[in-house]
Amino acid sequence: MLRCPKCQERIIKDRNRYVCKNNHSYDIAKQGYVNLILANQKSSDSAGDNIDSLKAREYFLNNDYYKPLADSLITLVNKYLDDGNVFLDAGCGTGYYLQQIIAESKKDISFYAVDISKKGVIMTSKKCKSATCFVGNVFHLPFEEADLDGIMSVFCPYSSEEFSRVIKKGGYLFAVTPGKEHLFQLKEIVYETPYLNKEEGYKLEQFNLVEQFNVTYNMNLKKNKDILSLWRMMPYYHTTSKEDNSKLESLDRIDCIADFLVSVYKRC
Ligand SMILES: [Zn+2]
Questions:
Q1: CATH code, 191
Q2: Global model pTM greater than 0.90
Q3: How many angstroms separate the alpha carbon of residue 30 from the centre of ligand 1?
Q4: Which residue of 29, 76, 198, 265 pairs with 207 in a disulfide if CB–CB is 3.0 to 4.6 A?
Q5: Domains in the chain, number
Q6: Residue 7: helix, strand or coil by DSSP?
Q7: Tens of pLDDT, residues 38-83
Q8: Domain that holds residue 251
């Protein structure tokens, strides 16, 4: 199923490595993942989420504040995928969603997970033992044309061209982007003029939108650590001044809206 990032030939598992017919080989790390990213496809050694952001994500998600979103993704996988299908989590992060999808899947599906962050892939492979986890770039996926029946892309960069190349006709893409009100109550504290998110799905060619809905609910954040972890895993954190970010440091509880836009696209 996977192909060699150097010569594009198939790679097959041979004990503790993957190898192509041109003898390019990729070791399977002891944590169970394989690195399929070439140096020139990577922006830097620490590409992807940094470890603090990943730890914040791991902590926050493990408190199940985003469980309703995970439940929606589980429902979509069970609704749209069939026995024998191949499904990729493109930008798996810490593996929180995929772990639950695998546990709740009613179908016989081969699961793959990719992220540009090696540390994220290690976290994912620990949680998702049955999945094939690899370090890679969503803009250069190591799959052949039409290899996949579905991709999930949750708060991640995406490539219309690459996704339409690897998803077969009739296959699905599940995309999650921020809803209008996502974390508005936190923004009200941090910013003088908070704004609602511009709500939009993916801009894609060769896909039709088949279903789109919001998952919106109130989160009762009860601890300062929970609030700070949520804020630190958001992109806002890195674009906001220290002074503004520090406004959350003494906040012990808050009711905050989680609002996700979930879009289902079918490859045409
Ligand atoms: Zn090769």
A1: 3.40.50.150
A2: yes
A3: 22
A4: 265
A5: 1
A6: coil
A7: 877 765 555 566 888 899 999 999 999 999 999 999 999 999 999 9
A8: 48-267
